[in-house]
Amino acid sequence: MESESSASTVRDSTVYLTRKFPEPVSRILEPLFEITLNHSDSPVGRDELLSHIERADGLLCTLNDQIDREALDIAQKLKIISTYSVGYDHIDVENATARGIYVTNTPDVLTDATADLTFALMLALSRRIVEGHNLVFNREWDMPWFPSFMLGNDLSKKTLGIVGFGRIGRAVAKRARGFGMKIRYHNSVKVSKAVEVEHDATYSPLETLLMESDFVSIHLPLTDKTRKLISYEMIRLMKQSAYLINTSRGMIVDESGLADALRREEIAGAALDVFITEPLAETSPLLEVNNILLTPHLGSATVGTRYRMGEMAASDIRNVLLGIEPVSLVNSGVRRRPI
Ligand code: DGY
């Protein structure tokens, strides 16, 4: 679709950036639009966010900015919400669509980084890397090598159950094959035979996957169907020797149920990069158990990935405000507001 906007209309368009973003964002947006931004790494207060949304034509936000009905109700001119994330559970997409507001995200560019972190967590957990580091670093390594010292578990020949077989789930499967793992997957829709063959992956119902896997890794979007999907009852289906890894969204796992299962040694361990509340509250039951590895939402946290996320998120704002279709549209049925 070609732009019908005059140059002055484009310059009159305002884009609000809810954080400091990497360099490509200002390079792409500043020459074209009026930019207002939060110069801090912390989220702005709700009232300030709403007052910017009220006036903006474009919004570049993060997963911590709740773009809900209240925010959309006051958005007079908003034409695009571009989230600097692949997940968009913080945006009321249905409501945005009804109002003709485009919603875009940043898939693909963060797939490898997130799959890499998943593997780093699996290895660190099963080979007790953080525990070993702490032992050496705290000057508590006081015995020379002996055969039963700090034994972990192999990945090779073990079964990896991947829950959610989209881009990131498949990228994890690709890495797992290199480690000689057997791959099971569960997905809302069974993938094509060709994809199964490509990844040497076998479909399992969720319960079967939990019962038969040595490692279970979650790669689901957060939706009404996946919220608390991995409940205590589900975790209890896992083998006592199995590990749970979550790099998707914290709300998918029942955190107190998981803490109970870990405390009772009903599973061998868990590695989590995402939490129901971030940062994790000091009172979280997850901090009371030992067989756990916790990282602060680092899935896409590489310099190159964040740079590409910035390019993608900013380009789609530019596209929509210039009347061009965006590259990564979430709400494909949207009928645009007039520019
Ligand atoms: C996402 O993109 O949804 C991640 O959680 C942060 O990069």
Quickly count the domains.
2
Number of separate strands: 12
CATH fold label of the largest domain? Rossmann fold
Low-confidence stretches: 1-6
Give the number of helices. 13
Helix/strand class:
alpha/beta
Q: Order of strands side by side in the largest beta sheet?
A: 8-7-6-9-10-11-12
For the CA atoms, what is the radius of gyration?
22 Å
Fraction in helix = 25-40%
As an assembly, this protein is: single chain
Round the mean pLDDT to the nearest integer and report it: 96
Helix-strand pattern? HEHEHEHEHEHHEHEHEHEHEHEEH
Global outline: elongated
Termini separation: 13 Å
CATH-assigned homologous superfamily of the largest domain: NAD(P)-binding Rossmann-like Domain
What's the main sheet like?
Answer: 7 strands, parallel
The hetero compounds bound to this protein are: (2R)-2,3-dihydroxypropanoic acid
Query: What is the strand content?
Result: 5-15%
- Second-tier CATH architecture of the largest domain: 3-Layer(aba) Sandwich
CATH class of the largest domain: Alpha Beta
Structural features, described:
35% of the residues lie in helices and 14% in strands. By secondary structure, the protein is α/β, with parallel strands linked by helices. The chain has 2 domains: 4-109 and 303-321, NAD(P)-binding Rossmann-like Domain (Rossmann fold); 111-294, NAD(P)-binding Rossmann-like Domain (Rossmann fold). The protein has a 7-stranded parallel sheet, sandwiched between helices. Helix 4 links the parallel strand 3 and strand 4 (80-83). Helix 2 (23-29) runs parallel beside helix 13 (303-321) and helix 6 (111-126) crosses helix 8 (167-178). The two termini are 13 Å apart.
